[in-house]
């Protein structure tokens, strides 16, 4: 396992965090979508991430990979809005079961993870460059 | 020319040849004794440097094939080999200079 | 490795190996931090049992989850150690280089 593969691992981490970011921001944006174009309720997205071994090595080192983006089946919320066109006879509108607060917290942790991976990438690159400079100054 | 003098001359010739031969052998043996010190060391160092060059070459080849584990090993190996070779070069220059100076000496 | 200052170069080189392995482990930990159920990797160095044998380092799973800020701190500390070793190697070698070149030019 060389240091170059570390760059691969870090960039895989960045991709995973980016996918989670997309899912979280999509959920937040659609938190009040009562109807999608198919006419069904919007279901929050969740990203399934798992660790996979690096191709061609038997090392314990693994990189994170997005294995699936699924629609969760979370319970819709009922919001009391009598004047809404989609309100039922009691005046409640069913809205997607997006927990806005916890999605915001997720965004914060996603952001931290992304920045951490970015810094790791940077540090790895610096270390590799310093290694290459060995022997160049007499 | 008497037979005695001819005999004396040829005896001197033989003696001279013998002396030359006697002188030659000690010079060779002193060379062998000297090479235990200087030349053997040089030869050993030459072999070391050659081994290092081959090993470093292999390491760089692995790097080019993308199958290297440690970049820092390759870089360190490169520099150490260069230094060892440099040392060999300097010693060789010094030995050459010494030889040329000896050859320049008026006999 | 070298016949000139092989002792110090070999020990620096071994330490660099361990540092590089640690860097790989910590980088993988940080990348996999958001994977549920991921156990962080650590590098264990074993002291040689026989005198004169080389210490070996290997990766192993600890049964802990990844704490992002701690992992970053460990990675940074290890990176500084790596650069320190590189600098130590360069300075040692440049002294030797001076000796070989007798202080004249490149």
Distance between the termini of chain B: 36 Å
The ordered string of helix (H) and strand (E) elements of chain B is: HH
* Fraction of helical residues of chain B: over 70%
Number of H- or I-type helical stretches of chain A: 2
The biggest sheet of chain A, with number of strands, parallel, antiparallel or mixed sense and barrel status, is: 2 strands, antiparallel
Strand content of chain B: under 5%
Distance from N terminus to C terminus of chain A (CA atoms, Å) equals 30 Å
Which term fits the overall shape of chain B?
Answer: rod-shaped
Strand content of chain A: 15-25%
Structural class of chain B: mainly alpha
The order of strands across the largest sheet of chain A is 1-2
Alpha-beta classification of chain A: alpha+beta
Biggest interface found: A-C, 38 and 35 residues
Low-confidence stretches of chain A: none
Care to count the β-strands of chain A? 4
Q: How would you sum up the global shape of chain A?
A: elongated
> Biggest sheet of chain B, open or closed, and with what strands and sense?
none
Q: How many helical stretches of chain B?
A: 2
Please supply descriptive tags for the structure shown above.
heterotrimer, A: 138 residues, alpha+beta, two-stranded antiparallel ribbon, 43% helix, 20% strand, elongated, C: 106 residues, mainly alpha, 57% helix
Could you characterize what this model shows?
The complex is a heterotrimer of chains A (138), B (107) and C (106). With 138 residues, chain A is of the alpha+beta class. Chain A is built from two helices and four strands; from the N terminus they run αββββα. Chain A has helices at residues 3-29, 100-132; strands at residues 45-53, 62-71, 77-80, 92-95. In chain A, the strands form two sheets. A two-stranded antiparallel ribbon of chain A has the order 1-2. A two-stranded antiparallel ribbon of chain A has the order 3-4. The mean pLDDT of chain A is 87. Chain B is mainly alpha-helical. Helices cover 91% and strands 0% of the residues of chain B. Chain B contains two helices and no strands. Chain C is mainly alpha-helical and 106 residues long. In chain C, strands 1-2 form a two-stranded antiparallel sheet. Chain C is elongated and about 60 Å long. Chains in contact: A-B, A-C, B-C. Chain A binds chain C through residues 1, 3, 5-6, 9-10, 12-13, 16-17, 20, 49-51, 59-64, 109-110, 112-113, 116-117, 119-120, 123-124, 126-127, 130-131, 134-135, 137-138, and chain C through 20, 23-28, 30-36, 38, 41, 59-61, 68, 71-72, 75-76, 79, 82-83, 86, 89-90, 93-94, 97, 101, 106.
